[in-house]
Amino acid sequence: MADDTVVRFEVQDGIGVITVDYPPVNALGPGVGEGIVAAVEQGEADPAVAAMVLMGAGRSFIAGADIRRFGKPRATPKRRSYDALEASSKPVVAAIHGYALGGGLENALCCHYRIAVPGAKVGLPEVLIGILPGGGGTQRLPRLIGPKAALEMIVSGRHVPAPEAKALGIIDEIVEGRDLRAEAIAYAKRIATLRPLPRVRDMTVKQADPGLFDTMRQSIARRARNQKAPYHCIAAVEAAVTQPFEEGLRTERRLFEELENSEEARALRYAFFAEREVARLPFLPKDLPLPEIRTAAVVGAGTMGGGIAMSFADHGIPVKLLDASPEALARGMGRIRDNYAVSVKRGSLAQAEMDRRLPLIEPVESYEAISDCDVVIEAVFEQLPVKQEIFAKLDAAMKPGALLLSNTSALDIDAIAAVTRRPEAVAGAHFFAPANVMKLLEVVEGAKTAPATLAAAMKLGRAIGKISAYAGNCDGFVANRSRVPFNIEQGLMVEEGALPEQIDKVMVDFGYPMGPFAVNDMSGLDVSYQTRKRRAAADPNYRGLPIPDRLVEMGRKGQKTGAGWYRYEKGDRTPHVDPETHRIIREVAAGMGIEQRSFTDQEILQRLLFSSVNEACKILEEGKALRASDIDVMWLNGFGFPRYRGGLMFWADGIGAREIYNQIAAWHQRYGARWRPAELLRRLAESGGSLREAQSPKSR
Ligand code: NAD
Predict the structure, then answer these.
(1) CATH number of the domain that 423 lies in?
(2) Which of 233, 267, 348, 642 has fewest C-beta within 10 Å?
(3) CA-nearest residue, atom 1 of ligand 1
(4) What pLDDT was estimated at residue 535?
(5) What secondary structure letter does DSSP report for 68?
(6) In what order do the strands lie in the sheet with 160-161?
(7) 595 is catalytic
């Protein structure tokens, strides 16, 4: 008997219909594989059944493995669904809607035919969680569509839309009808008597171009630095070309087992779950009625406002854009148009898509014109009086129930909300630059923010493709606040004798796409220069950074001026080490009376990251972030922290709270107050507790 709690078997018109029903997305959870085996066996045994259909209930075919089962001991099933489907003496048709990913597609590849609705997507995304398709996918896909296309799909892990999958040969037929079950039954009847059954395992794999696999290894070298899974994926597909099927399967299994409990796979699984957990705000009442967001407005058409408006348009939400002057508005619209045009030119956006998105962004010149919008996001200059003036106007103009959000980087949300008569409708919505690209959205709760406002802002972020993360109201909120100590140590280590290129190399070797000094040069050194000047004017004890100050004062503002920390050739963004920078560093440091010394790579890495770990602990103990894993999500999606290291706190946990605490305590002695160890860190060091599982009291 089939396990009819998760897999049903019914016979209709001589066709056995196997339906996987394991909400929400029919992952291959407990009992699903066994249920499919039992159903196939039942269908084979039933003389009334001529052919079978495998499909999913609800919104998807089979969306993949149950990731929670990886890395834990599992019983080996008597028979795997893959073998049962493929060996069936009666044809089985996979009927795909929604997603057929990972183990889902691997099951479909074991069926004798595959049909799909036009909106379906297929793929083998295992590499994204540090493993490889371990259900025969690396052996069957190359046989079905050739080694080159299979290699590209498996190494990228991308989702392939059904029409492309049909062109590649993964899908036999796209069915246009609305009733997939009926279409599948009709299809199964048509092919029921055809013999021999087409089995992918019996297909001859096309010859690979010589050099295909080595070329792929070279092309991923930068992206896949420090990782094993992409290379194992290549090796597994190579085995499909060089080994007989059964031997290839054994190779795939061996490579899979090497990856399943690797550091990177554990980190990537952790990141996957951290990104789900981040949406959960346990202190909010369940089933809060939330306002619908159908239209949006953005005030301030600058760098951030333009990017935010694009995020709305990119997700089909009409958005009105307002600025102080017609000129600024026109400039902003021009920049948006240019940004889209660049994507079209690069081939990452279709012209038709640009033509659909651009008209969704409407420039307007008055507050009346936006008063009816469901949400407004303010992105004007970072000055409290300017923001307060805007919020007073928004309060007067916006319809009741509208969300009033500020993209401030660090200003006090309560001081902004205080100028309105509806502080409950106000929250922070802190995007990261470039706002249409970066995934992170920090949603900042003010003292009077209503639960429904907070929940609606979190949901809004997800609706425009962001990962929304909760932050309490404090200077810099959570992401930037936890990053500031890193930036400070970066600056101070240069004074002490570490060179920018050494620090950059340490961080690139660690896994960042660029080193922090190269990033500074790219963004421009003048912005943080202005911030330091402002802070110094406000605070007599402010510790400035005379070296980058000197660079800016010499006109070295980064890439845009041809020199900053590095030197740049005209029209080229490649940083070149500059002896002039070394001279400036020595001169300024000597003037400050600081003796230069050498640094080990480990000291550099730890000074940068331990300082941030310590701050993250302070943020958690103050309840400004809910979970250590939320901070990890922010570092992954806001700062380019290497995903295969899980995130700042996951990485730190690998070292352990005790070791980090001891080092920080030593630096506290040596460098003073900025290294005061967080209370939470001390407690975890003493108890042997986990950094990555640390939570604020608010999250319980
Ligand atoms: P920007 O200078 O590029 O843009 C600001 C825009 O606001 C300009 O177009 C300006 O004309 C407009 N503006 C100023 N006063 C106005 C008013 N009274 N009414 C309407 N429009 C007005 O600045 P930006 O970099 O886009 O930053 C905007 C906000 O986003 C700031 O609060 C900043 O702290 C925050 N932020 C910036 C970044 C970043 O990396 N640039 C990241 C996150 C958040």
Answers:
(1) 3.40.50.720
(2) 348
(3) 302
(4) 87
(5) G
(6) 99-101, 121-123, 160-161
(7) no
Query: Cα–Cα distance between 305 and 309 in angstroms, integer?
Result: 6
Q: Which residues are bridge partners to 547 per DSSP?
A: none
Residues in the chain: 700
Mean pLDDT of the chain: 96
Residues 160 and 218 both lie in one domain: yes
- Same domain for 252 and 395, yes or no, is no
Alpha helices, DSSP H, located in 221-319 = 229-242, 245-260, 263-277, 303-314
Summarize pLDDT for 223-252 with one digit per residue, the tens. 999 999 999 999 999 999 999 999 999 999
Is 688 inside any structural domain?
Answer: no
Instruction: Name the closest-CA residue to atom 17, ligand 1.
Output: 324
400 CA to middle of ligand 1, Å?
25
Say whether both 132 and 45 belong to one domain.
Answer: yes
Residues of the chain with pLDDT under 50: 1-2
The pick from 383, 409, 639 for probing ligand 1's pocket by mutation, whose C-beta has the most ligand atoms within 8 angstroms, reads: 409
User: Last residue of some domain: 205, 236, 261?
Assistant: 261
Q: What is the pLDDT of residue 527?
A: 83
409 lines ligand 1 (CB under 6 A): yes
Same domain, 319 and 195: no
The pLDDT value recorded for residue 74 is: 83
CA of 303 to the centre of ligand 1 (A): 7
pTM for the whole structure: 0.94
Q: Which of 597, 612, 631 is the last residue of a domain?
A: 597
**Same structural domain, 471 and 511:** no
In this prediction, residue 324 carries a pLDDT of: 96
- The yes-or-no answer on residue 501 being catalytic is no
Within 8 A by CB and 6+ apart from 375, the residues are 293, 295, 296, 297, 402, 403, 405, 456, 460
Domain residues for 324? 296-475
> What's the domain count of the chain?
3
